[in-house]
Amino acid sequence: MTTIRLTMAQALTRFLANQMTEIDGARVPLFAGVWAIFGHGNVAGLGEALYAARDQLPTFRAHNEQAMAHAAVAFAKASFRRRMMAVTSSIGPGATNMVTAAALAHVNRLPVLLLPGDVFANRRPDPVLQQVEDFGDGTVSANDCFRPVSRYFDRITRPEQIIPALHRAMAVLTDPAECGPVTLALCQDVQAEAYDYPASFFDERVWTPRRMRPSEDELSAAIAALRAAERPLIVSGGGTLYSGATEALKAFAERFGIPVSETQAGKSSLPAAHTLNMGSIGVTGTSASNQLAEDADVILAVGSRLQDFTTGSWALFKNNSQTVIGLNPQVFDATKHRALPLVADALAGLKDLAADLGGWRAPESWTKRATEGRTAWFADADKATAVTNAPLPSDGQVIGAVQRVLGSEATLVCASGGLPGELHKLWQAGAPGSYHLDYGFSTMGYEIAGGLGAKMAKPQDEVVVMLGDGSYLMMNSEIATSVMLGLKLVIVVLDNSGFGCINRLQMATGGANFNNLFRDTRHEVLPAIDFAAHAASLGAIAKKVASIAELEAGLAEAKSNSRTTVLVIDTDPLITTEAGGHWWDVAVPEVSDRPTVNAARAAYEAALKAQRFVN
Fold first, then answer.
1. Pairwise CA distance, residues 224 & 244, whole Å
2. Contact at 8 Å (CB) between 85 and 34?
3. Contact 350, 240 (CB under 8 A)
4. Could you report the per-residue pLDDT of 351-369, keeping only the tens digit for each?
5. Based on the domain organization, do 472 and 362 belong to the same domain?
6. 137, 207, 283, 503: which one has the fewest Cβ atoms less than 10 Å from its Cβ?
7. Which PROSITE patterns does this one have (predicted)?
């Protein structure tokens, strides 16, 4: 057997550089590169290996470990999980900074390879700088924090262990059912240790999507349910996009006359202009989708994990005889709430369903009702995005301005706060993947770093990041990284002086205005934050605009700018789109001295009566 003597870190980088995939007939590296912030836990071993491999496996440096992991996750999402990135940090805070991003990837079923440095396997210098010591377990390190938020976790304590660990990592990262973050904790002494690796370990391998087909029994049950349906509705999730099933979904909906609603992850499965696209569903849903969901007798959930925002905390689907068909490659998701499982790839499953449904179509009256509801919804949406003479614009009006100037072909990136709800309702997505949100983990601080990752995956697209002042203050450092890498973003900061979304939720549950908006927090002086000046100090072109008209002019200029542009606008923290939407289960205290809380509790108890519990 031919062997090659390398350090463990050198073997790792050589292996990653030889993993390939095929996209549109072209063979490309599966790993687009490695994000790295070096410290004593990875600079000597992995840092030296990455330097040697820098032409085959590019290394990118960011300013925050969480942010660079967000960028890597966003790259994978924007690439529909066909390509991915690795991320390395030192031990201690560098590693634990990445745990939030690992949780984001885990919840959203997105691939990322995390390579935190770890303590010495030989334990001779213990405790080393930044080492976490467990008084009762000598095997514990800070990297054990990754265990519950990794699909696969391993700690490399001998150089040869990297061989089976990487094989298992690749199986998880490329599997449509198991896909998610992989953490390989790299003991810093082992990174530098040499081993005679089999040359075959470094053979080039091409990874292509696995297309799992449904079993005959599950397919027959799903077909029978659909043929009996009088009011069917499709709920399209992120799996539709990751499977490359958007055209199949369009053909399926048109052939059988079934309206389509979209989750946050599934938005852009159909163009917003398609007559069968009812838009968003659930807590942040359109009236068109939610009215159909209440009455639907069969829900075909394609590639969705059916989280509470999609199901209105399982109070939206009010038809007592309703059947859910779970078309999903992961049986855990396919069987939720006693669904009829159709365990399969979305593209393969839709094709098999279409082949067996024959000449069946949904009743014309149901399809007509859907299109009429869609027309009514768009009238409401136009009102929400229209310019008014109000002292401060709403989030919806800012969304309307961005849409008018940049259009539905731009890739929109957002994550948390009030904007995702407004965007889910109001943004009119065009191309598949042009709507890019993390709303599975709803991570404040994802937005700018996520925009950077999306731009790396789609360098020819206009990538627009929308976020509130709260998210901006949590993580803005990657503005500098975008300038450094020459990856232009258009960033719109909506400044409502605090956490406006949670303030509205606080009010809706009877709470007092407390600790969310700056004016309601403990303070000596209210901050007057100049976001435009701050963004300019990071290298961006930046401007504070005073109106929707000025925002539109700034966006038009941003299209021709050569580097990242940040536009800041003050917005009203209390205004939200009233049309559409649905109840969301947020527990209200049973006992309170405040009448508003007691009233909210009474309303909460009434709403609970519509909630299904069939887990």
1. 26
2. yes
3. no
4. 999 999 999 999 999 999 9
5. no
6. 137
7. TPP_ENZYMES (PS00187)
The dihedral sign for the CA sequence 602, 603, 609, 611: negative
Q: Is 101 in the same domain as 179? A: yes
CA dihedral 350, 352, 355, 361 (to 10 degrees): -40
My answer on whether 236 and 292 are in the same domain is: yes
Q: Could you identify the residue written with the tokens 């303590």?
A: 119
Give residue-wise pLDDT tens across range 551-580: 999 999 999 999 999 999 999 998 999 999
Going across the sheet that includes 19-23, the strands are 26-29, 19-23, 205-207
Burial class from Cβ neighbours inside 10 Å (0-12, 13-18, 19+) for residue 202 reads middle
Tokens representing 510? Answer: 């009877």
Amino acid letter for position 423: L
Structure tokens of 222?
Answer: 């799903």
CA dist., res. 604 & res. 251, Å (int): 41
Number of domains the chain contains: 3
- 256 near 361, Cβ under 8 Å? yes
Which helix or strand (DSSP H or E) is residue 10 part of?
helix 8-17
pLDDT in tens, 465-510: 999 999 999 999 999 999 999 999 999 999 998 888 888 989 889 9
Q: Determine what percent of the chain is predicted with pLDDT higher than 70.
A: 100
pLDDT above 90 covers a percentage of the chain that reads: 92
User: d(Cα 181, Cα 112) in Å, to the nearest integer?
Assistant: 5
User: Which stretches of 51-176 are assigned E, i.e. beta strand?
Assistant: 59-60, 84-89, 112-118, 152-156
Tell me which residue range forms the domain holding 429.
Answer: 386-570
For 5-55, how does the pLDDT look when each residue is reduced to its tens digit (9 = 90+)? 999 999 999 999 999 999 999 999 999 999 999 999 999 999 999 999 999
| 411 and 289 co-located in one domain | no
Peptide bond into 573 cis (omega under 30): no
Q: In sequence order, which residues have a C-beta less than 8 Å from that of residue 310 and are 6 or more positions away?
A: 235, 237, 263, 264, 281, 282, 304
Tell me whether residue 516 is in a domain: yes
Q: Is residue 576 part of a domain?
A: no
Q: Are residues 25 and 126 in the same domain?
A: yes
φ, ψ of residue 196 in degrees (nearest 5): -90, 95
Q: State pLDDT tens for residues 242-261.
A: 999 999 999 999 999 999 99
| 447-478 burial: b if 16+ Cβ within 10 Å, else e | bbbbbbbbbbbbeebbbbbbbbbbbbebbbbb
- For residue 615, the model assigns a pLDDT of 59
Domain boundary (207, 236, 253) is at 207
CA distance linking residue 109 with residue 173, whole number of Å: 10
CB of 226 closer than 8 Å to CB of 302: no
Distant-in-sequence, close-in-space partners of 55: CB < 8 Å, separation ≥ 6: none
Structure tokens at 208: 């292509």
Asked if residue 275 belongs to a domain, the reply is yes
Does 482 map to a domain? yes
**Token digits of residue 364:** 């014309």
Structure tokens of 310? 């999609």
Q: What's the whole-number average pLDDT of the chain?
A: 96
Q: What is the CATH number for 21? A: 3.40.50.970
CA distances (Å), origin 607, targets 315, 508, 601, 604, 613 = 8, 14, 10, 5, 14
Using one digit for the tens of pLDDT, what is the confidence trace for 58-112?
A: 999 999 999 999 999 999 999 999 999 999 999 999 999 999 999 999 999 999 9
